[in-house]
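QA checklist item 7 of 12: single-chain prediction sanity check.
[x] sequence parsed
[x] length recorded as 232
[x] structure emitted
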Amino acid sequence: MSVTNGMLLDDILRKKMFHHVYQPIYALEDWKVFGYEALLRCKFFQNPESLFQFAMEKNRLYDLDTCSVQLALSSVKASYTRFVNVYPSTVLHSFFPDFLNSIQSSNRNIVFEINEAEKISDMRSLRRAIIFLKDKGYTVALDDFGKGESSLQTVIELEPDFVKLDRYFAIDLAVSKEKQAVIQMLLDICQDKNMKFILEGIEEPADLAVAKALGVHFGQGYLLGKPIPITE
C-alpha cells in the first residue's frame, strides 16, 4: 500500500509504521563505540527525507519528529549515547517542553541533532531553546554542517556540544589539502568553544587515517559501521 493509494500520515503515526536503524559513532582516539545515531526508515517512502517532507506539507512535522524520537529512545539502552534527529521547528514548538517531560526518565545520554535540512529563521530563539535543552541535561549536535544553510555563524551563535561535518568533507580527504584545512580550522574553533567534532561519511581507510591524524574526535560512516537494526 502506498501513500498515493490513500495511506494517511495519521495511520503511519498512530500505528508507528516506521522503524529505526542505528549507525555507530566511533571515538577515533581509542576506536571505541561512543554512541549510535538513530535513522528513521519507512517502507512507504524511498528515503526518510520524503516522509518528513510529506509531514511538512501536512503540517505534522512536529508529530512525526517527536514520535520518531520516542520510538528511537525506547529501542536502545540508555547506557549508549543516543543521537536523535530533530528539526529546528520541533525544538521551538510550544509543546516541546512537555514532550521532554514525557521522556525525562530516559533522558540519560541523549544528543539532539539539529537537522539543518530546515532553514533556521530565528537564530536567537533557537539558541534559547538549546540553552533550555542543556539546562535539562541533554546535549546538542549541529547536523550536516557545511551543507545547505549552515555556516560558521551558526556554530558560533548556537554553541552546540557537537559539530557534525557533512560527508562531503570526508570524501577524498586524504588527497585534498583544502578539506584538510577546513577541518583543521573547525577543530580549532571546537577547541576554543569546548565542542566535539564528528566527521560523517567516512568510507575509505586513507580518509579515516587522515581524519585521525588531524585530531578529529569522532567518526561515522560505512567504513566504521553501516546502519543496522538494533537486534544486530
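[x] summary fact logged: DSSP finds nine helices and eight strands in the chain.
[ ] second reviewer sign-off
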